[in-house]
């Protein structure tokens, strides 16, 4: 099945000479040489200085912090006696290593406890807003930003976390950085950056029943590979993208990093604006129209050019589940795991190792493979719409006795919403464990781990070796597929439940 | 002022990890990320590979002291954790040679004096093959941007000139960015009227 077509537009190399030559060619051949795409527009609006031969000093509008990748950054600036540049452009929460038990204040693991306390103290000392366990707003960084309305179109957003790309759903240029760069932004509000290349991904057509945004992004990753978008920022376009809710758009942008993209984003539209309206940190009524006009100005111009273009057809897409140890190793339900001999030599080596780890065979059909664990949560699929989909499937049914199912809301706001809507009762009645918000089993830094050798169907974003606990086996899928599989006790299609 | 170690020339036996798409979870698993300092990660570099494969080079005495790692393509993909770089440098790795690297990992390395070298696929394959016996000594020189192999052949690699200057002199980005303080202030003043996000603290 070849749903994707890759067109290689003129390859603008990172080298200066290459860029110039290319630019000249384009302006001759088309009148739209000045047409810009959204990536270029946000880029241009944030360049502070541009010195020949140097990377740009690039302004960052918002940085999110969590406990795992920030401590060393605070140490760095403090050791040099540097003040935080602008604490009002920072927002911190705790999510990665926090427990998801009822009593979260008590953290048994000493190292995790130290991490959380260190962030709490650092934020206090530097006047940085901190969403603690008693704030009512705590949650996974990439879930709370949008919820609070701090994530807005046209902004530049970074976090010491690769799934920062989630915020791109709002038409922001949002990307993950390492801890050194976290320190740079703390100290200066800026980063040294080189302009990324751009890639247009068009999702054509409409989803069939039981197929979701998660399946679309897994399909893209399978088509272009885990390094397919290296060096690029993806703009997602197309009829299907316009029809997506903000939550679905976040799922798509979230996993951009899994094909190597620096970021992924979607031009803002009425869906974006109505999501933002009334949120805690969104513009007030008197600023609203002006803000919307400003946000709209970032949409790509009609004839804007991209360095690469990919088209994915959704009309025939089925639910997708991964079989290997990277997110590109996936098949549609019903399809067989590919034959090894059809793969390129180095692909094949990776696949052989992956199959050995996941205890599967080439040509095997995934449907029907028994699972012992099911996880719904993470910054990919831990939002209210995801949990509603899962609750709808679980309602009046039982999780298979052989399966332990965790449902972990992405934030306290999501958790409260679940309680208001009675979803928590549905989960409990079905036999699933509805827990407190956090990253949980997405990376298993806390107690939430899939035991060695056990197989988990998961709504998270990474199936790397040991990601959900040492020697655990992960199958990535949509929340609906996770719910259907939890009921069946084996990998199952959600089609008959929705 | 030198703020991070300077990078110049490294000569060492090459340690081969002939795998594509090595992710940062594989370089340092999440379970070991709980420290609040940059130290101590070296002990758990490639922990899963070391635990599962007695022949993994780091388990072989012959590779003790190797400071050049050679691997396939897209090394360092996945999580942005800079801990992956600290694990490598903590274990004494100074240079990684590969066909390609993931973006965030590439940025993180430059900030910690870890030199990443991209060579042509066939040269990398040759090194991966030859280095298996732990007696394959390679010299990497940043100044001249060359990798010299035991057969005397020398291979040029590309390196960003600005980054090279920083690496050779042990400079870090903070001081460079701070030298543009007035432009930054001007930029923020200009931008203020398009700030629609009420301050997070409010
Ligand atoms: S939910 Fe998973 S991917 Fe998302 S921020 Fe937490 S650990 Fe990272």
Please, could you describe this protein's structure?
The complex is a heterodimer of chains A (498) and B (202). Chain A is α/β, with parallel strands linked by helices. Chain A contains 17 helices and 20 strands. Chain A has helices at 16-29, 38-44, 71-79, 110-125, 141-148, 179-188, 213-224, 239-243, 246-254, 270-276, 285-296, 345-358, 378-381, 384-394, 412-421, 423-430, 479-488; strands spanning 4-8, 47-49, 56-59, 62-65, 90-93, 130-131, 156-159, 173-176, 190-193, 197-204, 232-237, 263-265, 308-313, 320-322, 330-332, 373-376, 404-407, 433-434, 455-458, 473-476. In chain A, strands 1-13-10-11-12 form a five-stranded mixed beta sheet. Chain A has a five-stranded parallel beta sheet with strand order 6-5-4-7-8. In chain A, strands 18-17-16-19-20 form a five-stranded parallel beta sheet, covered by helices on one side. The two termini of chain A are 25 Å apart. The radius of gyration of chain B is 19 Å and the shape is globular. Chain B has a seven-stranded mixed beta sheet with strand order 4-3-2-1-5-6-7, sandwiched between helices. In chain B, 31% of the residues lie in helices and 16% in strands. The longest helix of chain B is centred in the C-terminal third of the chain and has 11 residues, at 181-191. Chain B has helices at residues 24-27, 47-52, 83-90, 103-110, 121-130, 161-169, 173-178, 181-191, and strands at residues 9-17, 68-71, 95-98, 115-118, 137-141, 146-148, 154-156. By secondary structure, chain B is an alpha/beta fold. Chain B is built from eight helices and seven strands; from the N terminus they run βααβαβαβαβββααα. The model of chain B has no long low-confidence stretch (mean pLDDT 93). At the A-B interface, helix 3, helix 4, helix 6, strand 9 and helix 11 of A face helix 4, helix 7 and helix 8 of B. The complex binds iron/sulfur cluster (SF4). Iron/sulfur cluster (SF4) binds at residues 95-96, 140-142, 161, 163, 378-379, 439, 442-443, 460-461 of chain A.
